[in-house]
Amino acid sequence: MPSVDSSKRGLKGEGAEVDSMAGSDSQESLKVGQGLMLIGGQWVGSSEGQFIPVENPSRRGNIVGEVPRAKEEDVDRAVRSAFRAFETWSRVSPRDRGKLMLKIAEVIEARVNDLARIITLETGNAIRTQSRPEGILTADLFRYFGGVASELKGETIPLGENLLSYSRREPIGVVGGIIPWNSPVALGALKIAMAITAGNTLVLKASSDAPLAVLMMARLCSEFLPPGVLNVVTGTGSECGVPLARHPLVRKLSFTGSQEIGKTVMGAAAERLVPVSLELGGKSPQIVFPDADDPQVVEGTILAMRFTRQGQSCTAGSRLFLHESIYDSFLDQLVKKLAGLKIGDPLDESTDIGAIINQVQFEKVCSYVRDGLQQEGARLLTGGLPPSEGPLAVGYFMEPTVMGHVRNEWRIAREEIFGPVMVAIPWRDEEEAIRMANQTHYGLAAFIWTHDIGKAIRTAHAIESGWVQINQGVGIMPGQSYGGCKQSGIGREYSLEGMLDSFTQRKSITINLKF
């Protein structure tokens, strides 16, 4: 594969780096060097020499970097590189693979601030509330899977004194991983750590909207991994993602993203009967009981809604079911709390909320708000359509939006918006709240708020979601088996069990001792 002449393109030659790090942290002084793809241990451009620009969402039209526009030929070379590396890598002991993950964790932890700056520039996420915590989580993911690597073991089965029967966990082969733009580095780290610790090799397709920090992470990983074990390609979904999903040498697919693309990935897997893990969208409910009308719960529902990530999270608790006895008082507190959040330059340490990823997503979110405002009886409590002029108009900024007196069947309450838009729906009895919460084709996350632990557990058991939080709105932590039901996905990741079930295959061996 031809590499790009970095002297002509101004490229760094290895992944993505931050220029002018010694300068101030302003938008003008921080630039991200154009990145190259990692294939077979080499940093290369695309076979056709084309690049994709990466826009800064907080400054419309400001290009912060470029990445190769990979096509089917590039994907094929990456997969074949991973295929060649698999035979040797799969024979490395799990403990030794785990030690490498721990070394990667240490290096990433030392570079968290550099990673955070790049994440901020390409995603628009606020550096204090989102990007730096994502960098820390990234190191923790490598550390967790490095620590549990020795648990890749089988069992013995007591079939009788004259038979020795045992099972073993074996890697599957080449894994094709596809990640979105909302938490690119953490989700990339998750695919890398699970697939590689289990003994597979990986071709990771980064989002074309947020590939630069992923490439930097890949460069740090490549310092410890043999060539071909980890490969990272960049490009569009149709030109790069689809060829990866359909490649005949890919033995496992792991996809995080939208429901629509997830169906395409599952269709590609079905053609070859390839195992697939899908973590898709959500329209997650938050159920607040009458005894939970207090400031701590209000703050928790804001956190669960992921307002400080502009609502761009699959687990965002965007449907707020409030008991009618506390409906008005709770929303009054909620609106006041949201008014105290600062929206603006995501590199500013005082900023709470950054920008939406791109113009397409920005306009999509606005269309949902317009639709909601047109519904009879709807009441806009805060936020709404973004300003067309002023400081927030320079980027894809949108204020936290809460709409009250929404009906559960409305489009704004039924479809995933993936933006900072929450709908508040009143309820009278517990059965009604659970019924409305389950009236969706999604089933990823749910949040329950009450001081009555018995009621909380009963509700958690009745909710049709794969990941339920009681009295907290935090995100997923390493070690939790995470995934959805219904059309929110298939399979589990994030945990030892997820790695064993999704990234290894069980082989049973029986020996006749009397032979």
Total domain count: 2
The biggest beta sheet, please? 7 strands, mixed
| Helical content band | 25-40%
pLDDT averaged residue by residue: 93
Provide the low-confidence segments as ranges: 1-13, 17-26
Shape descriptor reads: globular
Question: What order do the helices and strands come in, and which of them pair?
Answer:
Blueprint: H1 6-9, E1 18-19, E2 31-32, E3 37-39, E4 42-44, E5 51-55, E6 63-68, H2 72-89, H3 94-110, H4 112-123, H5 127-147, E7 156-157, E8 163-171, E9 174-178, H6 184-197, E10 201-206, H7 212-222, E11 230-234, H8 237-246, E12 250-256, H9 259-272, E13 276-279, E14 285-288, H10 295-304, E15 319-323, H11 327-339, H12 359-373, E16 379-382, E17 401-404, H13 411-414, E18 421-427, H14 430-438, E19 445-449, H15 453-462, E20 467-470, E21 489-490, H16 496-503, E22 504-512
Parallel strand pairs: 9-10, 9-12, 10-11, 12-13, 14-15, 14-19, 15-18, 17-18, 19-20
Antiparallel strand pairs: 1-2, 3-4, 5-6, 7-8, 8-22, 13-21, 16-17
Helix pairs in contact: 2-8, 3-5, 4-5, 4-7, 5-6, 10-11
How does this structure look, described?
The protein has 515 residues and is α/β, with parallel strands linked by helices. It folds into 2 domains: 285 residues, Aldehyde Dehydrogenase, Chain A, domain 1 (3-Layer(aba) Sandwich); 193 residues, Aldehyde Dehydrogenase, Chain A, domain 2 (3-Layer(aba) Sandwich), CATH 3.40.309. The protein is built from 16 helices and 22 strands. A 7-stranded mixed sheet has the order 16-17-18-15-14-19-20, with helices on both faces. Helix 2 runs parallel beside helix 8 and helix 3 runs antiparallel to helix 5. The longest helix is centred in the N-terminal third of the chain and has 21 residues. It starts with 5 loop residues before the first helix and ends with a strand. The N terminus is likely disordered.
